[in-house]
Amino acid sequence: MNPTNLSTATSGAQTNRSAGGSPLSRRALLGGVAAAGVAGLAGCAGDESASISPVSIGDDQACDQCGMIVSDHPGTVGQVHFEDDEPEGGRPAQFCSGTCTYTYRFDAEGEGRTALATFLTDYSAVDQEVFESGGDTMFSSHVESEAFAREPELTVVVRSEVIGAMGPDLVPFSDDGDVEEFTAEYGGEAMAATEVERATLEAL
User: Fold this and answer.
1) Which listed residue, of 1, 7, 63, 100, carries a Cα 20 to 30 Å from 74's Cα?
2) pLDDT in tens, 49-107
3) Where is the composition biased (Polar residues) (predicted)?
């Protein structure tokens, strides 16, 4: 693995640290998605959720947890596909942050609902931008279906300097090299996305 340096920007303008103004490409999007897809199918053989695919989040879609418009805010976004498709009305539940994704799912499971698949932004598979706003460091958000990866394929970094729509958040990657690069620059602790618990969110 040879991950490319992350891009950064200041004063609210999104620029590349070394290339003066254009977002830095981390890797070809389709290549990353194809690799993730193969890994997902291999790991989920026989799982009834293996056939579930992520959907793109619409421009006007509100977060099912907090009500904010997902595409209007920076950082990790997520979606959870439930067995009963309720009360979302036949669509997956969709969220403006990693914290909203897990909070909603934990609450729903506590009420007896069954989550079949959870997807989060895979920052190893997108051309991300890093920018500063109000003194905070943020990652761009990505709502297209190709930007998501399954929870078991991801490592999340918690308690880093990068915040999301709801403040401190989980920053997911499918590539271990990207995790190492991110933590070296922004701090935080890495953990498997499947190991996130309520206590994890409370400690952010």
Assistant:
1) 1
2) 788 999 999 999 999 999 999 999 999 999 999 999 888 989 999 999 999 999 999 99
3) 1-19
Q: Which of 9, 142, 141 is nearest to 74 (CA)?
A: 141
Say how far apart CA 3 and CA 9 lie, in whole Å. 19
From CA 180, how far away is CA 118, in angstroms rounded? Answer: 24
Tell me, yes or no, whether 37 lies in a domain: no
- Distance set, CA 88 to CA 83, 91, 94, 107 (Å): 11, 6, 9, 14
Query: Residue 33 falls within a domain, yes or no?
Result: no
Q: Residue 78 to residues 13, 55, 65, 135, 145: CA-CA distances in angstroms?
A: 25, 10, 11, 25, 10
Q: How many domains does the chain have?
A: 1
Give every CB contact of residue 163 below 8 A, 6+ residues apart in sequence: 75, 136, 137, 138, 169
Q: Quote the CA–CA distance of 75 and 23 in Å, as a whole number.
A: 16
Q: Provide the residue type at 35 as one letter.
A: A
Apex CA 69: angle with CA 160 and CA 154, to 5°? Answer: 40
